[in-house]
Every structure is written in C-alpha cells, then in structure tokens.
Amino acid sequence: MSSTPLRRVRRRLTTWYLATFGAILLLLGGGLFVAIRHQFASELDLSLRDATTELERAAAIRESEAGLAGHVVDAVDELHIPDRSLFLLHLDGTPIRPERADAWIQAAGREAASQGTIDLDHEGIGERTLRLHAGRFALPTGRALVAVAVADKIELEDRYASLIAAFGAAALAALVLVAAAGSVLVGQSIGPIEQSVEQMRRFVADAAHELRTPLSVLRNRAEIALQQPRDEAGYVAALAGIEAESARLARIVDDLLTLARAESEPRAVERTRIFLDDIVLDAADAAKVVGERLGVVVTVGEFEEAPIEGDPHLVRQLVMILLDNAVKFTPAGGAVTVRVGRDGSASILRVIDAGPGIPPEQLPHVFERFYRGDPARYRSPAGTSGSGLGLSIARWIADAHGATLTLDPAEGGGTVATARFPVAAVPGRPG
Questions:
Q1: Could you give the CA distance from residue 81 to residue 84 in angstroms, rounded to a whole number?
Q2: Measured between alpha carbons, how far is 311 from 316 in angstroms, rounded to an integer?
C-alpha cells in the first residue's frame, strides 16, 4: 500500500467529514428555518389581532363621542399603528374609515362578518404578499362592525433574509473550521496507519534481506557439493554448513513469528510470583557455556532477591537475549558481568559487557527490528550470526511486564543493559 492510496483515503475521509457536517447543518438549518418562520408568522398574526383590538376600542370611543357638541376628534382617524393599515367596515363590507378600501378587503370584511374572524394572504402588486386579519365586533350600542388590519409580509422576508444570512455565515465558518479540524483529525488517524504501513514495508524488506542471505548460502553450498564427486568428509562438511545455515534460518523465522504474534495476537502475560534472581542465575549458567566457546567469561556480580510478577518463560527469554548480545559483542578474553538487585519499587537486572560500546547516534535505533548498527549487515564480531530481532523481542517482553529496558554506555567502555521490573507484592519467598 503506497502513500498515494493513503492520501486518497485522507481526502475521502475529510470530504466525508465535510459532507456529514454539511448535511447536519442543512437539516438543522431547515428545521430551524421552518420553526422560526412559523414563529415569525405567529407573531405577525398576533400583532394584527392586537391592531384590530385597538381599532375596536377606537371605534367604541368614536361611537360614544358621536353625540357630543362641537368639534370632536375622530378616534379611528387618530389611530395609527406603524406598518399596519387599518379599516373599519360595515357588515356588508362598505368602508367607514377610511372612506375607500380595495375590493378584496371588502370581500374579506363580508366573510369576517359571517364567520366572526378571518386570516388570509393576498398577492399584491410586484409580488408583494399582504397578510390580513379581520374580526366582527359589537359596539356598546349593539351595532356590529368589522375591524380589519393589513400588513406587508415583506417585513417577515427581511427577517428571514437576516436569519439566513447570519446562519449561512455561521455555517460557512463552521464548515471551514470542520475542514481544518477534520484534516487534522484525519491526519492524526491516518498518521499511525501510515507509520504502520511504512514499518510493515521496511519490515518486509528487512525480512526478505535477512532470509535471502541464509537461503543463498544454502543454495550455494548445495550447488558446490553437487558440482563434482566428493569423499565422505567433503559431504559431511557440506552438510554441516547447510545445517548451520538452516539453523540460522530457523532462528530468524522463529523470531519473526514471535514478533508477528505479539502484534497480531497479544498474549496475556502469565502473572505468577517469580524471582528475577533465580531466572537470571539459570540463564547465566547457560550463557557461560556459550561464553567458554567464544573465550568470554560470564560472571555473577552483586545479587539480591528480586521478586516480580510475570511469565517465567518470557522473562528468561529476555534475560537470554541480553546475555547473548553481551557475549557476542565482547571480544575473546573479555568478561560479561550480571547483577540483580532492588531499588525502591523496582527489581533491576543489569548486564554489563566489555564490547566496543554503542555510538550515541545509534542508541535511539537499537530496539528497531533488524538494526545492527552497520548498514552492510555484517555478522557480529564474535563470529556468530543474529537476526537483529532480539532486542525488539526483549523490548516487547519488557513492555508486556510493565518493565523498562534501556542500553547505556558503561564506564571504561562497553554497554550496560538495564531491565527494571515492578517489585511484586510478595511477603516472602515461597518455600
């Protein structure tokens, strides 16, 4: 899987973020618009009803003042409500105030006279819509009239436009923020995948390189053995070489399977009370045999009872990896020292070798798979071969036990491998 498909996935995920959020905004905006439009329409109808109520009061005042001598101000003529047109009609629709009314208003007045109240919309000139409310009422004298209030719905359209503009601006800003945040979130989501893909690609390439070498050696040895007849000793030597390379190939495959299973099927680490010092002593005895063959002395230094909780087989594998590395990279005549102790809440294992040490620039990479510190991938100085996976497996075992594993320069040369395990809450050593 190349980076190009991942970039396409990144773009698609970001687009889906935007599309999903845009759909949510559209639904929310549509619902909000319908609700607010209904609210605005209700408020307009309520204001028209209030206007007709004021008109009815003015008509009652006009009726009561009709018999007074002298000049009396007509209460209906003096009534002005901003943005509202008021009409006082007879029951047959004939206008009283003002003296003229459009035919559709008179028709609405007649309908209100028969039904009691009426609300309707009327398409005016220039695509303008007028909203009307008309209601029949009775004066104190018992005389019945019709009060009509009319408003231009353009005020609602103005409020709608303001609402849409405000919501649109907020939605646009939200989409921009979602696009930016979505790109960041997608990047954070895809980042580990990209890193995993890159690690997988490098892992496959390194594994192919490591497997190719012993396979090539096996093939070459077999071809050489078959080129011409040999005596029994010659065939034995050829088969011994093939056996050695087969063993190395088997170790590489076993290490690859261990790491693959650790990642794809994380095993539950067995939690039993064990003592790190016992495991290290047993592993040190095994390392002494290898050391004797290579001219390296394995010595046990400071030792202290160190209880931990974990899988004894995995812990022993970690210890053997550290001892094996220390022995392999210590020149003949050198020594490897093993120490076990406690420091507060930690049980500590230290393996100190007398090898050439690790350059500071290589320390951050020592736990990477197949890393050996030299691009040419030569075999180790001790004359043995390794897959470059040991420290990766050791780090995984340490992490599975809640432990830390570090490599540091030793005083006077060499390397110190330190594993710190949490101390087990064990009251005493089991008998």
A1: 6
A2: 9
Alpha carbon of residue 355 to chain centroid: 45
User: Confidence band (pLDDT; 50, 70, 90) for 1?
Assistant: very low
Q: Are 75 and 147 in contact (CB under 8 A)?
A: no
Bridge-based pairing state of the strands 85-89 and 415-422 = unpaired
Question: What angle is formed at CA 108 by the lines to CA 93 and CA 110, rounded to 5 degrees?
Answer: 40
pTM > 0.70: no
What is the pLDDT, as a whole number, of residue 70?
46
What number of other Cβ atoms are within 10 A of residue 8's Cβ?
10
DSSP-derived secondary structure for 198-256? HHHHHHHHHHHHHHHHHHHHHHHHHHHHHHS---HHHHHHHHHHHHHHHHHHHHHHHHH
Structure tokens at 380: 């180790």
Contacts of 316 (CB under 8 A, 6+ apart): 279, 282, 283
Q: Tokens for 42?
A: 């209700």
CB 407 within 8 A of CB 358: yes
Q: Which residue has the tokens 């002298």?
A: 70
Token digits for 93?
């629709």
Packing angle between helix 276-294 and helix 312-328, nearest 10 degrees?
Answer: 30
Q: Using CA atoms, how far apart are residues 109 and 89, in angstroms rounded to an integer? A: 7
Distance (Å, whole) CA 99 – CA 139: 19
Distance from C-alpha of 258 to C-alpha of 100, rounded to nearest angstrom:
99
What pLDDT was estimated at residue 394?
A: 87
Number of other residues whose CB lies within 10 A of the CB of residue 390? 21
Can you read off the two tokens belonging to residue 401?
A: 């036990």
Q: Are 299 and 337 in contact (CB under 8 A)?
A: yes
Backbone angles phi, psi at 427, to 5 degrees: -65, -30
Report whether 248 contacts 385 (CB < 8 A): yes
- 19 Cβ partners below 8 Å, 6+ apart? none
Structure tokens at 131: 């909203």
Phi and psi dihedrals of 121, rounded to 5? -110, 145
Name the amino acid, one letter, at 343: D
Quote the tokens at residue 118: 């009426």
Residue in 262, 246, 222, 224 with CA at minimum distance from that of residue 369: 262
The neighbour count for residue 120, using CB atoms within 10 Å, is 14
- 3-state secondary structure (DSSP) of residue 418: strand
- Alpha-helical segments (H) within 65-144: 75-78, 103-115
Per-residue pLDDT band at 358 (split at 50, 70, 90): confident
